Amino acid sequence: MSTVAYVILLGFGDIQEGGAFLFSLFLSLYLVTLISNLLLILAVQKTSHLQTPMYFFLCHLSCADVGSISSIVPQLLWEVLAGGVTISFSACMVQLYVVGALLTVECFLLGVMSYDRYLAICWPLRYSVLMDSRVCVKLAVASWIGGFLFLGVMLALLASLTFCGPHIINHFFCDFFPLVKLSCTDTTIVEKAPFASSFLSLSPFFWTLLSYGFILSSILRISSSTGRHRAFSTCSSHLIVVSIFYGTLVVVYMTPPSETTFSLNKIFSLLYTVLTPVLNPLVYSLRNKNVQIALIKGTYFIVQEVTKAK
Fold this sequence. Notes:
By secondary structure, the chain is mainly alpha-helical. The protein has helices spanning about 20-45, 55-70, 75-80, 90-120, 125-130, 135-160, 175-180, 190-200, 205-220, 225-255, 260-285, 290-310; strands at about 5-10, 85-90, 170. About 35% of the residues are buried. One of its GO terms (cellular component) is plasma membrane.
């Protein structure tokens, strides 16, 4: 139950002098994220030799990235210009659900991608059978359903609280802990829920660690240094993104909430909500020459279509 009709998101309104710089930075990152992820999806769809399980899951990851950053950055840009923004309480809850669900979907997809790399390196002869198109679709659908169901449980916990103020959230989007602080009832159990649920939401991370344990063992058994380097290069991109994404998530959601951590977590939240979606297509794709060629062709295709439309 809520008697709070609206909330005020402060965002980065306390940084008045750097408002123009932040606006330009966030807008640039947003545009780069949209263009690079959409180009990646187009490149995979238009290039036959990129239609592999890894790039199939990467396209789903791009969709989740575009959805999550689009749920945050347009509002963030307005916060930077206005020094804060006022939204309805129901809209705040919807944003929490959508952003949280898409981030959880990303957790599951990263775990699935680590499993894909494990099969490709440790079971190369059976890879095409173990990771056929039907398995890929089932794993992708399970990731999406699991993400939205998981956040549904967290939203149900919030709905059990009574919200009566204050109306101010010192964050740039409606996150779990800042929203809980608006409650005027006992939140002890609810505040502990993210720590308990983190073991479930971080299960893809533990699965990733287990997969890479087997991968590393398999790579070390390769006698050729060239073969070891080639095998490891197929995993390095995934490891970089996983390290950044989970590193910031652990800092934000596994740290007990306090006034100091709220301010610090606002900075760390930028890494997994804004920076990671930019890095994903760049780290995964631009290191691959085939993808670079496909992206150039995709860009040329878009330019041609735009020219024809004119």
